[in-house]
Fold:
Amino acid sequence: MVTLTQLFVSKQGEMAAQFKAPLEHPVAKGDNFENAWTNFLQTYLPSRYECSNGFIVDSRNNVSDQIDIIIYDKYFSPFFLNIGSNKYIPAESVYAVFEVKPILDKKNFIYAQNKAESVRRLYRTSASVISNGNIVAGREPFPIIAGLLTNTCRWESVLPKQVLDETDPKFLNLCGCVDGYSWAAKETQTGLQYVKNNKREESLLSFFMELLNLLQTRGTVPALDVPKYFDGFSPIA
Structure:
């Protein structure tokens, strides 16, 4: 009988082989990494979540940096824009953002932190909704998850040892790693710190379970206040 652990270990080996494919061009190699992670997440996450690269926008005309993988709401998002090959996704619809890099080192860690900050600085509306005939006030937008997805991870040389501040817009929640150790921010006896998974061969499974748990704690995205996105537009005569 095949277990869930065996399925993920097999997938981890498949992705590791894909990352080692002989691609000479750095752009092609980067696209290969990004596509592998996107396909993995889209395959295993529940169907309520959509995964794509693109930009995130808010109702005040602010735009994030380009993000490698955006996990956003598939059912309740009222719209997103496609301009050329780029997607522009409303900030209210976003659950999580990830950068994809071949290796976790200090440079890429800081790079992912800056991308996370560009998203978390955006303004998010939260409109009231009608439930069972009653008006329910808009909910407080939840903290957007952010992280880094890599092939290999230099664990000890990168991650800060001090207690973390999850209210910091640069805060990274977790890192997925195919050929190395994944890690996540967890409460310890000394406060919130990064903790790696115990078994390297189960790194992908560990990352996925941590991500799924974080997504479940977010629940459903807040209702987007659509008129806010169209302030200044003339109504149809």
Summary: Residues 121 and 169 are 7 Å apart (CA to CA). The mean pLDDT is 83.
